[in-house]
């Protein structure tokens, strides 16, 4: 039973990986970026858990910068994905321009909040 | 263009401050005693207008000093004639000196009677006569006409008459406004009360210089303007009137003075009377008197000159009723004296002063005296109230006087302003009787020890008491007429070497009494036994024998202090140390938050860089390339600029974090943003078009 569960899991992972290998390269780049942002946020949370949240606004702006940019990247991914029929007419360049603009606005606010 | 010639701005501020003080004082009590110009003014004039190195300064200052001396009847002690005359003649001799300087030079030379050649005066007269025909500003009119009037008064032989006086009159009148104010020039829309005064004086000059008479209708129009100007007069509570200037830099004193000079000059040259309300003229006079003695030469001149204008005017001469002393002592049998003079202190025409009524200030009670005529003492020029009725006791009263002119002809010349309210203090030595201090036994109320006191003289009683006893101090106060008297202050003070305590002495009728029950006071006395010095203060403004006297001491035997009894505040060793520097206040700042060790923070900094590293490694693994980067030079340039732009915006954010403020950041961001938007649009649309071409191909 246990063995079969392990095998199933392995099989599941395998199929997932092979399916993921088929995703276009630009989407993979975005995934990588999202992972980078999420990990940076996690490290900051770990830091806060260890030493306390004294410059609380700095901590908040760090976390929010990472999660914000990750969310924006996810949005970009949704819009760029060719299989998403909803955004078929939207050129990826336009989506990228939105992403850049939103990031700039986000970070202006973050910098203001950073203190 | 501004009113600078007759007024310095610094003086304006000082005058305003003075007026505020006067206003503040006048709000407190509407009745006030305005003293006429006296010898105090004369000595102040000698101090204010003291020549330095044989001169009073500029010709303008010299003329003001000389005029003030003439008005006050002061002999010129210092000889300034030689040097001043020579500088005046120098100005008059030069054909290029400004009209204003010529005006003051003429004024000084007429005051000092300098020797100016007639030919020189004729040359100046012809020069001044040419000024009004093409003058556009009020200052030009004022100084040229004023100069001509001075020449006319000095040497009547010189021809100064204006042929086109009517035209000049009209040109000046054209500057007037509908509200009675005047403009300084035709291209300056601001209307000014100060300018109105100057204009009236100038018009008066034009009338006196006219070779043909000015039309009566024109003069009536100006009189109408004066009445309109007086609609804007302002009033203080004590019955003083003044003009205020809406234009900055000119104080009410200078403005009022200008109007008064203009008004009186116009009234004395124009035919027919200028009818103005009597209380306005009297109020203006009182306004100038209410200032007292100004500390500034310019203000002093304005005050004295205006008062002299009012006194010598044809409008009406105000009479000022003043009390040389507003404190009348019943004990000394003082008589209430009233003096009626003109504002400058010269004698009044024969008249009677009536005391209409007198009442206690601040009370609604009926008056204590009614309708008494004062007796005139021709020797001292006083009007004396011979006998104060017994109904007048000590206290603060308001007396209401009325001036009745004996000759009905005088009533046309003088204004008396109806009734005058004056505050008067009636003081006396207050009788103190039955003063005694005693120690009582608390439970029975029987007297243990009793000592007579000799209040107002010397006392040195020594008493002893314990906490079960009481101390009683009593005395009676009565006025010379035998009425009860309640002073402002009746205070008993007990002084121990470590603490002092103050008690108010209450009264019932004539009798004042304070009883100190030591049983209830032990805590207040901090259980401190020992010697207490007794001090009694009784004081009032109308009590001539107010005193603060040591009565002696009482030896108090109080129980031991319990554990938690409060301690007396430590008294400073030196009673004056309370005026010394205060103890330094040490500020407590919030303790800084605990910070983690630097190494830990640096380690985490490195750790945050790890995902980035992972990101780069991942990119390499994915085999990312820059093949899509445009190769044609123009799009490539746009692509580079786009990335540089985004980089610079991020750098700007970093700067914003480090040192810039939000405003500079936003300004720079606006510029950079437009730039990035432009190049970004170019490069991205280029990329989009190439990819769509690829697709379609």
From TrEMBL, chain A:
Membrane-spanning residues: 32-50, 56-76, 96-114
UniProt xrefs under InterPro entries: DAD/Ost2 (IPR003038)
Protein topology in the membrane: Multi-pass membrane protein
Keyword Endoplasmic reticulum: yes
Principal location: endoplasmic reticulum
Keywords in alphabetical order: Apoptosis, Endoplasmic reticulum, Membrane, Transmembrane, Transmembrane helix
Subunit-level organization: Component of the oligosaccharyltransferase (OST) complex.
Protein name as annotated: Dolichyl-diphosphooligosaccharide--protein glycosyltransferase subunit DAD1
Organism: Punica granatum
Automatic annotation (TrEMBL), chain B:
Domain Ribophorin II N-terminal: 38-311
A cellular component term, taken from the record's GO annotations: oligosaccharyltransferase complex
Signal peptide: 1-30
InterPro entries: Ribophorin_II_2nd, Ribophorin_II_3rd, Ribophorin_II_C, Ribophorin_II_N, Swp1, Terpenoid_cyclase/PrenylTrfase
Biological pathway: Protein modification; protein glycosylation
One Pfam family per UniProt: Ribophorin_II_C
TM segment ranges: 600-624, 636-656, 662-684
Chain ranges of the Ribophorin II second domain: 320-426
GO biological process, one term: protein N-linked glycosylation
Ranges for domain Ribophorin II C-terminal: 589-689
Protein keywords: Endoplasmic reticulum, Membrane, Signal, Transmembrane, Transmembrane helix
Main localisation: endoplasmic reticulum
Residue ranges of every copy of the Ribophorin II third domain listed in the record: 433-556
Highest taxon of source: Eukaryota
Stated name of the protein: Dolichyl-diphosphooligosaccharide--protein glycosyltransferase subunit 2
Naturally occurring in which organism (per UniProt): Punica granatum
Source taxonomy: Eukaryota, Viridiplantae, Streptophyta, Embryophyta, Tracheophyta
Gene label: LOC116192810
